């Protein structure tokens, strides 16, 4: 038996989330998927940009994650690319999240999907929305880092 740890392989990232939100806490959740969705994820047919998490009757659901069916999908299955997917977490974690989401300005955002030990996992974050001036400062910081990297690259030539 091998004790080597398998590094999680990314399926999809929500890059827009870091621009729009401050992340306070991150969580890992399992996802309930259908067979055709797993096959489509293996092929990278997923978009997570508009993904967010809602709480309905004490359960978490991922909304806005679009998984496009493969052309070779079975004829007896009716794939729905935008259906809401149930997220799996421990009850005490869900209860704690419910309490925090009810606070003003907090929401749950899907950050990424990845493979872990042969299963699809979702990284979600408890997030607070950024104001417009915060978004501008994020852009300014990113551009500043790029300029520093360019200067270092020029210097080492």
UniProtKB/TrEMBL annotation:
GO cellular component: cytosol
One Gene Ontology term from the biological process aspect of the record: trans-translation-dependent protein tagging
Example GO molecular function: RNA binding
Subcellular location per the Swiss-Prot or TrEMBL entry: Cytoplasm
Disordered: region residues: 130-157
Pfam families tied to this protein: SmpB
InterPro entries reported for this sequence: SmpB, SsrA-bd_prot, SsrA-bd_prot_CS
Entry keywords, A to Z: Cytoplasm, RNA-binding
Cited function: Required for rescue of stalled ribosomes mediated by trans-translation. Binds to transfer-messenger RNA (tmRNA), required for stable association of tmRNA with ribosomes. tmRNA and SmpB together mimic tRNA shape, replacing the anticodon stem-loop with SmpB. tmRNA is encoded by the ssrA gene; the 2 termini fold to resemble tRNA(Ala) and it encodes a 'tag peptide', a short internal open reading frame. During trans-translation Ala-aminoacylated tmRNA acts like a tRNA, entering the A-site of stalled ribosomes, displacing the stalled mRNA.
Recorded family membership: Belongs to the SmpB family.
Matches recorded under NCBIfam families: PRK05422.1, smpB
HAMAP family referenced in this protein's UniProt entry, alphabetically: SmpB
Protein name: SsrA-binding protein
Taxonomic lineage: Bacteria, Pseudomonadati, Pseudomonadota, Betaproteobacteria, Burkholderiales
Primary gene name: smpB
């Amino acid at each position: 038996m091998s004790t080597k740890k398998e590094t999680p392989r990314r399926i999809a990232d929500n890059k827009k989330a870091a621009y729009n939100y401050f992340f306070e806490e991150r969580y890992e959740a399992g996802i309930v998927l259908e067979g055709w969705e797993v096959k489509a994820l293996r092929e990278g047919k997923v978009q997570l940009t508009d993904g967010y998490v809602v709480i309905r009757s004490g359960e978490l659901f991922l909304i806005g994650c679009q998984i496009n069916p493969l052309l070779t999908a079975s004829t007896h299955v009716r794939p729905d690319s935008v259906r809401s997917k149930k997220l799996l977490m421990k009850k005490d974690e869900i209860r704690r999240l419910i309490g925090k989401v009810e606070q003003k300005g907090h929401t749950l955002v899907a950050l990424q999907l990845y493979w872990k030990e042969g299963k699809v996992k979702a990284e979600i974050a408890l997030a607070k929305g950024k104001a417009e001036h915060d978004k501008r400062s994020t852009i300014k910081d990113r551009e500043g880092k790029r300029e520093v990297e360019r200067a270092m690259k020029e210097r080492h030539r």
